[in-house]
Amino acid sequence: MTMDEKIRSAMMAQVSKEGYAGKLGLKLVELSSGRAVVEMMPRKEDENIFGMVHGGAIFSLMDEAFQISCNSHGRVAVALNVNVTFHAPPSFNRRLRAESKERHCSKKTATYYITVTDEEGALIASCQALAYRKKERLPFLEENLA
């Protein structure tokens, strides 16, 4: 399915203004209907007590990709459930890539599968996520169309 270009433009503009994602260095690199790819380069401030990339940073990367993909249809969608499995600790000198793909989309819910890999293609984490789809259109859609 081809993504509506008005929705795509509005989503790209809104994501570029998002403070939390900016603070973590999360960058949206691909966006299409029901799919998003977000990348980050782990930094020293992203480490946990063991000197590894904090699971919260990895979760935030996955959640950003999930948020973008489930709202890519132009309707407000929010997380209902997210199940994460951590497979391997990433290195700080390798870019991480989260890819969120829509598996099912109904009137009220949508299911996504999200993977995080490093530059070498190693699987770092995977996630299954469920979104609740509200009736409202994205509030920033109209302001970005002007």
Descriptors:
six-stranded antiparallel sheet; alpha+beta
Topology-level CATH name: Thiol Ester Dehydrase, Chain A
Structure annotation, total helices: 4
| Shape assignment | globular
The tally of structural domains comes to: 1
Helix/strand/pairing category: alpha+beta
CATH class category label: Alpha Beta
What proportion strand? 35-45%
Q: CATH homologous superfamily name?
A: Hotdog Thioesterase
Low-confidence stretches: none
Strands of the widest sheet, in order across it, are 1-2-4-5-6-3
Structural summary, described in words:
With about 150 residues, the chain is of the alpha+beta class. It has a single domain (about 5-145), classed as Roll (Thiol Ester Dehydrase, Chain A). It is built from 4 helices and 6 strands. It has helices at about 5-15, 20-25, 55-70, 140-145; strands spanning about 25-30, 35-40, 75-85, 95-105, 110-120, 125-135. The chain has a 6-stranded antiparallel beta sheet with strand order 1-2-4-5-6-3. A hairpin with a 4-residue loop joins strand 5 (about 110-120) and strand 6 (about 125-135). It is globular. About 30% of the residues are buried.
Secondary structure: elements and pairs:
Elements: H1 5-16, H2 19-24, E1 27-32, E2 35-40, H3 55-70, E3 75-86, E4 96-105, E5 109-118, E6 123-137, H4 141-145
Antiparallel strand pairs: 1-2, 2-4, 3-6, 4-5, 5-6
Short description:
By secondary structure, this protein is an alpha+beta fold.
